[in-house]
Design goal:
single chain; 6-stranded parallel β-sheet; 6 strands
């Protein structure tokens, strides 16, 4: 087995990393390329460095569905600064008999002899360098002789670059620009879902511009309550946090502005929904986060869309956001504490109670009626 090893901060992993892995594999006839995100790089500290778990998860998402790629969590699981000689020693034991090929760019190849325990590195893996152009290829080829005199096995390939950097991805994310040409779709959605690389500040800035102070405080309370309910009921806390924070983003817009926005989005309300302006903001909000924040996770979109009306056969996240909105800490109605306890105990029972109250006092939309009938039938069936 010929195993390529591509390490890095992957902050975040992007299409140029994946292109390089494929090109190395094709030219060296590798059976597999192992992506190895570092815990903390020994040569630099970065204030923009995403948490190790997030960088690892993004690597896993990028490798999904690709037989060529795999991901190692060894360096991150150690929770120490990463050194190549230790990683290679571990992989030598994990893949006995495999030929290890350490994949690197020009700068790394030109300095590898100064890394910690270079003799160990030379003994464990073939050093494989990628040159960006012919002039650099000549320089790397000359350095290959230096390394081989030190006992290294090495090869130099001329691989035309794809001009993209993690810095550029982070900058685009911080400006809420599309990342679709930079990273795999699943990685872009992960960045948006977790508010990485300045996106959380973008969310907060937009909320501050669109909501009153009271509504913004409520949104943050709903976020906290949603995370609490997600933790209790085993749902995705990150999705709950984002949907909770953004659920009321269109709540303070005037009714006419909401109708205009829905029209621009090609959405026509039925007669029942038209009679209940208080539910329009959920529909507007779901469209807004798709278009403005480029969040397309169906679970988050539908949780925002139905957080006021509910619907039949709701997802766990939809129920959590609906109930977090009704039981957030700023809600001061008489039965608030009892309803909070009920939601902690049973999402379905709490939905039945809230929907029954909602039909009487708040919303008689088709979605709400169908939601109530659904939970009523489920309750009687139990």
């Amino acid at each position: 087995m010929k195993l390529g090893i591509l390490g890095g901060t992957f902050n975040p992993i992007h299409n140029s990393h994946l292109y390089l892995a494929r090109e190395f594999a094709r030219r060296l006839e590798l059976d597999k390329v192992l992506l190895v995100p570092v815990y903390t790089p020994p040569h630099k500290d970065s204030a923009e460095l995403a948490p190790p778990s997030d960088r690892l998860n993004m690597c896993r998402l990028a490798a999904e569905g690709c037989d060529l790629l795999d991901v190692s969590d060894w360096e991150i699981s150690r929770q120490e600064k990463s050194y190549t000689y230790l990683t290679l020693g571990h992989l030598r034991r994990e893949y006995p008999g495999a030929g290890l090929y350490l994949l690197m760019g020009a700068d790394m190849f030109l300095t590898v002899q100064s890394w910690r325990c270079p003799e160990s590195i030379f003994g464990d893996a073939v050093l494989c360098a990628a040159a960006r152009e012919h002039e650099q290829y000549s320089k790397l080829t000359a350095h290959r002789e230096v390394l081989e005199n030190l006992g290294a096995r090495s090869t130099v390939l001329e691989i035309p670059p794809k001009p993209l950097s993690s810095t550029a991805v982070r900058s685009a994310a911080a400006q809420n620009k599309s990342l679709s040409e930079m990273v795999p779709y699943t990685v872009e959605q992960y960045i948006r879902l977790h508010g990485l690389y300045g996106l959380s500040a973008v969310y907060e800035k937009t909320l501050t511009e669109m909501l009153s102070e009271k509504r913004l405080a409520h949104s943050r309370n709903v976020r906290d309550r949603a995370v609490h309910l997600a933790r209790i009921h085993g749902a995705d806390e990150s999705k709950a946090a984002l949907a909770g924070l953004l659920h009321d983003i269109y709540r303070d817009a005037e009714n006419n502005a909401q109708l205009k926005y829905l029209s621009e989005c090609g959405i026509i309300l039925d007669d029942a929904a038209l009679k209940h302006p208080a539910v329009w903001h959920g529909i507007c909000g779901a469209e807004f986060v798709k278009r403005h924040f480029k969040i397309t996770d169906d679970d988050i979109i539908s949780a925002i869309r139905y957080h006021t009306t509910g619907r039949a056969n709701m997802t766990e996240l939809e129920k959590i956001i609906y109930l977090a909105d009704g039981t957030s800490i700023d809600r001061k109605y008489k039965e608030a504490e009892n309803y909070r306890a009920l939601a902690d105990e049973s999402l379905d029972e709490a939905m039945y109670v809230f929907l029954k109250w909602g039909i009487k006092n708040y919303s008689g939309t088709k979605d709400t009626l169908e939601a109530y009938n659904y939970f009523d039938t489920k309750r009687k069936g139990n």
